[in-house]
Amino acid sequence: MLDLEIDGKQIEVKEGSTIMDAANQLGIFIPHFCYHRKLSIAANCRMCLVQVEKAPKPLPACATPVMGGMKVFTHSDEAVNAQKGVMEFLLINHPLDCPICDQGGECLLQDLAVGYGGSSSRYEEEKRVVADKNLGPLIATDMTRCIHCTRCVRFGQEIAGIMELGMVGRGEHAEILTFVGKTVDSELSGNMIDLCPVGALTSKPFRYTARTWELSRRKSISPHDSLGSNLIVQVKDNRVMRVLPRDNEEINECWLSDKDRYSYEGLNSEERLTRPMLKQDGEWKEVEWQTALEFIAEGLKRIRATHGAEAIGALATPHSTLEELYLLQKLMRGLGSGNVDFRLRQCDFSAELQGAPWLGMKIAEISQLDRVLVVGSMLRKDHPLLSNRLRQAAKRGTHINLINAVDDALLMKIEHKVIVAPREMVKTLAEVLKATAEAKNKPCAFSAQLAALNPSQEARRIAESLASGNKAAVFLGNLAQNHPQSAALHALAQELASLLGAKFGFFGEAANSVGGYIAGVVPFGTPAGKHAKAMLEDPLKAYLLLNTEVELDCHNPREAVAAMRKAELVVAMSAYRHKAAEYAHVLLPIAPFTETAGTFINTEGRAQSFNGTVKPLAETRPAWKVLRVLGNLLGLAGFEQDSIEQVRAEILPDAGADLAQRLDNRLRRQILAAVEIPAADGLQRIGEVPVYSADAIVRRAASLQKTRDARAPVAWMPGVLYERLKLRDGDKVKLTQEQGSATLEARRDDTLPQNCVRAASAHSMTAELGAMFGEITLERAT
Question: Could you point out which of 85, 193, 406, 449 has its C-alpha 20 to 30 Å from the C-alpha of 707?
């Protein structure tokens, strides 16, 4: 530790700290532009010059290490004159167009110019002008305003993991630009806007829509991935105008993924459902809430009386709030049916867990790991900010190992990886388990099942890597959880973690992937019922759909839609008009997360409650209120709640003090009878969910749908198959699966496993196909 004095105040800091670090601890503000606590030191703006005793000239506080006995003056005449001199140079070429700049009112340059700028400029020569750049549909540019702090450049290299912006030229000819013909396509790109201290980079969807002082700021939680990012939702005239990150070092730090940042456009979509609708004589008609709910109640009573309560089922998405999910299952069990599930993309339900599946650790603890194995995950796209934490850990020397079906660039150092067809993932993980048992010289619970296996060299390398660490973790991603043999992967991963003394967890799919279990939206308990797959394979007579678009949200969309068409009553509770208009009988407009209060339980098991940020649109109602009234109309007990807090208290008594005890990834029983490898005769589909197709709100966010990641799905195939069909890029192929077909453009990807075709799910162009990882046939389109 070193002692120093800043502006007469004594402080003790760690060796290696900078003057800026020490000043921040004291609460002393030093003006700066290029410095950011999450980025490397550049020291190129020079705005943080301070006076240091015995130093011949002012020194940059961000780059000057502390020395014992140092005396620093941040507001002396020498320091302030230096800072004013830097400000004058920064403003020489600045356009000073604050009245028309979107950054106006929240601009660091504007704020500091008040304190350190002159009342007039001594510069009379012509100012330089820099041409604007096309960075894509999310970031707008006014590059003449750029002060070359390089925050955006360093963010791409150090946080996003890819250099998409750089600086060329020298002196006043220097400018920030992209590589020739490229745009900024990172899933974290919007953070560059937050980092830019001036108006050079601004939000393109928000551009010229409101001034910052016109906006109300309200706290909220992201409903998309399982991280539960903390948000600031900015509102004007009861309309969400912009979403920004709210700092929380334990969850999203100071970052947001683009999905969390720009999905608000979907809240204002023209597809919003605004009034209850009934299908009468084949036509949709708007009705009053009372009429719609009475129709539903009578229909459910009739079907229960005629076919029994077991003929009624409910399907929800894990993007729904905890309170909505809880009342949905309470309604179903009140009717006498246990047919309720939120695991719509799962297809293997043979695993029985002792509790709710979760990350197995705190999110912040990921950075402390030294060995990691990720099984079945589109890591960057499914979990952008968890991926960033692993990226930063890899920079510090953590070994990241991967078993996956695709070889997408993760933009981090991967120690060892095995890319295999989905049908071979169980065998590959079993080989790693056997190699680990041999390396650790420990008995394995599955010794008999693994006896015939001979681990490959790749499996042995992963095992050696994992066994050499002290703090290891094994994670199952979305692909593994939706895998046809997900229970076997679970059992093997659990045993591997046990052998290593490692953490074992799941990267949850959505905001309430944990909360769905806590709310009881699974067919266990009393009465027991059917899981999602069984409800669709053997169609029921009535379905209640909560935030669910079955044609896009289910593992087998073709089968799901067919089940809906056979039902006597389908009630779609949704914020949007969608394909349910073709198979539903009632459409109820329910509020998205910004128009209702609720709770999400994120992947680390943290319950985060929030309030609505705007009033419900038109006749929209919060789903928890709709379900409560429906329970009353059905004459069910336990639907007397007057507030969302009362609903929450039923699920999380004592404010969720016992929540940690309800989280458990362990299996209830031994389920791995043998390591089975399905026949590899046919082609297997790899049907991952694209990042901007994951839920209803994101699918309607106009700017996100213009990005590279939202382009129309294509049929990716390995070179052998591509050449066998004599294809060229741009040719069309017909994919056929379970009597459904889709025609897509063909593309070659030599990193794909043999006998596999990658065709995204959760998209309208592939909604006629079957299971996400089922067999598929392929032919050249005529």
Answer: 406
Nearest alpha-carbon partner for 379 in 369, 367, 393, 389: 389
Q: Is the CB of residue 323 less than 8 Å from the CB of residue 599?
A: yes
Q: What CA–CA distance (Å, rounded) separates 373 from 606?
A: 23
Tell me if 317 sits within 8 A of 695, measured CB to CB: yes
583 in Cβ contact with 569 (< 8 Å) = no
Chain centre to alpha carbon of residue 330: 29
**How does DSSP classify residue 473?**
E
Indicate the burial class of 704 (C-beta count within 10 angstroms; 0-12, 13-18, 19 or more): buried
**226-261 confidence digits (pLDDT tens):** 999 999 999 999 999 999 999 999 999 999 999 999
pLDDT confidence bin for 680, thresholds 50/70/90? low
Instruction: State the CB neighbour count (10 A cutoff) for residue 757.
Output: 24
Beta bridge partners of 586: 278, 571
CA angle 49, 54, 59 (to 5 degrees): 15
Helix and strand counts by DSSP (H, E) for the chain: 24, 32
> Would you say residue 679 has pLDDT above 70?
no
Q: Which residues contact 703 (CB under 8 A, 6 or more apart)?
A: 137, 138, 204, 205, 262, 265
Q: Check the CA dihedral 323-325-327-329 and report its sign.
A: negative
- Give tens-digit pLDDT for 462-488: 999 999 999 999 999 999 999 999 999
Q: Which positions ≥6 away from 194 have C-beta within 8 Å?
A: 244, 245, 254
- Residue 366 amino acid letter: I
Residue 100 CB: number of other CB atoms within 10 A? 10
Give the span between the Cα atoms of 695 and 691, in whole angstroms: 9
Task: Give the span between the Cα atoms of 288 and 68, in whole angstroms.
Answer: 75
Q: What is the DSSP string of 435-467?
A: HHHHHHT---TTHHHHTT----HHHHHHHHHHH
Taking alpha carbons only, the member of 213, 212, 134 closest to residue 178 is: 134
Predicted local confidence at residue 486, as pLDDT? 95
Among all chains, which residue has been given the structure tokens 């409910």? 314
Burial of 741 (0-12, 13-18, 19+ CB in 10 A): middle
Say which residue the tokens 């041409």 belong to. 131
Instruction: Quick: pLDDT tens for 763-779.
Output: 999 999 999 999 999 99
C-alpha span between 577 and 698 (Å, rounded): 15
User: At CA 505, angle to CA 408 and CA 756, rounded to 5?
Assistant: 35
Those residues whose C-beta lies under 8 Å from the C-beta of residue 90, and which sit 6 or more positions away, are: 33, 45, 47, 109, 147
For residue 107, pLDDT over 70 is answered with yes
Cβ atoms of residues 434 and 458 within 8 Å: no
pLDDT digits (tens, 9 = 90+) for 373-387: 999 999 999 999 999
**What is the C-alpha separation between 541 and 574, in angstroms, rounded?**
20
- The answer to whether the pTM exceeds 0.85 is yes
Strands 472-476 and 503-506: parallel
Collect all residues with Cβ–Cβ distance below 8 Å to 569 and sequence separation of at least 6: 296, 299, 300, 303, 541, 542, 543, 585, 586
Q: Which residues are paired to 776 by β-bridges?
A: 683
Amino acid symbol at 281: D
| Cα distance between residue 117 and residue 318, in whole Å | 52
CB 598 within 8 A of CB 324: yes
CB 507 within 8 A of CB 359: yes
Question: What's the confidence (pLDDT) of residue 166?
Answer: 95
If pLDDT is split at 50, 70 and 90, which confidence band does 678 have? low
